[in-house]
Write a structure and sequence with these properties.
single chain; alpha+beta; Nuclear Transport Factor 2, Chain: A; two-stranded antiparallel sheet; sigma factor
Length: 347
């Protein structure tokens, strides 16, 4: 027996013992990755997602006697996780994480503001932590494909939504729950959920990155684009790198405030910082179901290779439409979560 939120998995029934520790561990293994991804979408933070999925399982273990087995175990866990996220958002200083400051125009020339620790920056998500998207079948109400609903631009766009609207959209348009099921989880009426969905969809419709995407699956061209991108860094070929950008490309570099729009502006900025290091090495990773690269930089003074930045690429028509480079001090902290070593291997 199933519902839109997944197969019904009886944990316990009236008059029967609740699940034991071994059964509960099997449940956590089965759902950990998808719940962590859900928490990441809600929060925009890999670290917070880790903490909240742990909190979800702790709460579920303590409340296991309250689950009677007549619903979906998956839905029960999503209910705990979603409410944990909503409570966490209420408790923190910012309800959303950003890739760029609202209303800040694109920059021109060099970056002078320095890293900004007081802003909450959207973090990337390692592909190694994703559930098996090939087997991820959302319910019939879903509007977004599984591959597209993890894109960095999509996660950035849904951060624009108030928390309850964000939760409703993720449950219904990403996971494919019905409005009735979402109302049972979030509280309120089905009409209130439908109203929240309409407002959320209207907000995303005003932002290109939040509209229903057209790209469905990674293509072979993306692999070639990634290879050319890595070679440009390693060969000290700035012109070759800029040539990979679309004319209207966008470039962000958290935790710096500055961002750039258009190939000439991006090329001019990269040219102003390109010579800061004696060389670069690039290692391919995956982030948000997009091509990504970890770049190590060779110090000019000490000739030591160090983690420098994590690059997330948004391809379009064989070119780079958007480039997000997480630079120091944030960038190096992302290497360990992405399984990248503290120094590169031999070339």
């Amino acid at each position: 027996m199933t519902n839109a939120s997944g197969p019904i998995e009886p944990l316990g029934r009236p008059g029967r013992p609740v699940l034991d520790r071994l059964a509960f561990e099997r449940l956590t293994v089965a759902h950990r990755r998808e719940l962590k991804l859900h928490c990441y979408r809600m929060m925009g933070s890999l670290n917070e997602a880790d903490d909240l999925v742990q909190e979800t399982f702790l709460k579920a273990w303590r409340a296991r006697s309250q689950f009677d087995g007549r619903g979906s175990a998956r839905g029960w866990l999503y209910s705990i996780a979603t409410n944990s996220c909503l409570n966490a958002i209420k408790a923190r200083s910012s309800a959303r994480r950003i890739l760029e400051q609202p209303e800040r125009p694109p920059s021109e020339g060099g970056a002078t503001g320095g890293p900004t620790a007081e802003l909450a920056w959207l973090e990337p998500y390692p592909d190694a932590e994703l559930p098996d998207i090939a087997d991820d079948r959302p319910g019939p109400e879903a509007r977004y494909e599984a591959h597209e609903a993890v894109r960095l631009a999509f996660v950035a766009a849904i951060q624009l939504l108030p928390p309850r609207q964000r939760a409703a959209l993720l449950l219904c348009d990403v996971l494919g729950w019905s409005a009735i099921e979402a109302a049972q989880l979030l509280g309120g009426s089905t009409a209130s959920i439908n109203s929240a969905l309409q407002r959320a969809r209207a907000t995303l419709g005003e932002h290109p990155q939040g509209r229903t995407p057209q790209r469905s699956r990674p293509s072979a061209d993306e692999g070639l684009l990634l290879e050319r991108y890595m070679l440009a860094w390693q060969a000290d070929n700035l012109d070759g790198l800029v040539d990979l950008l679309r004319e209207d490309a966008v470039y962000h570099m958290p935790p710096w405030r500055e961002w750039y729009h258009g190939r000439p502006a991006i090329g001019a900025f990269l040219g102003s910082v390109w010579g800061n290091f004696a060389g670069y090495r690039a290692v391919a990773v995956g982030a948000n179901s997009q091509p990504a690269v970890g770049v190590y930089a060779l110090g000019r003074q000490d000739s030591i290779w160090r983690p420098h930045s994590l690059h997330v690429i948004e391809p379009a028509d064989g070119k780079i439409a958007s480039l997000t480079i997480y630079v120091p001090p944030l960038g190096p902290t992302l290497f360990a979560p992405f399984g990248l070593p503290p120094e590169p291997g031999p070339p």
